Amino acid sequence: MGLLDDMLIRDTVFLISSAKGSANRARIASYIFSNMLHRLVRGRAVQREMKIDFKGLSSIFKTFSSELTSYLEIYLQKVYETEPSFIAHPGDIVFDVGANIGVYSIRQAREGAIVYAF
Hints:
Elements: H1 3-18, H2 21-40, E1 49-54, E2 57-62, H3 67-76, E3 93-96, H4 103-110, E4 114-117
Parallel strand pairs: 3-4
Antiparallel strand pairs: 1-2
């Protein structure tokens, strides 16, 4: 297996283990399977929304999108926390330019920051 295969397996395990309960773990597995199927059989799968409850966050994700990747990077891999100036503290003001579905904004607001997302 190559590096990308190893990363896919690691990220999948990471996501499934962070889900709240077996029903949400099954939804994540279904989401990942749907995305893989869509890539193999272009245009034949139907896009849908899936509500997934993680430990500490509930959100609706669209299949065939990269929305779940935002959750993975922000909550599980904590990529923004490697840079100390990106860690919000209560009362800090955060501008989330290009907020997409708002996963980063939600994380910062939970830390007590005042968030402007657009």
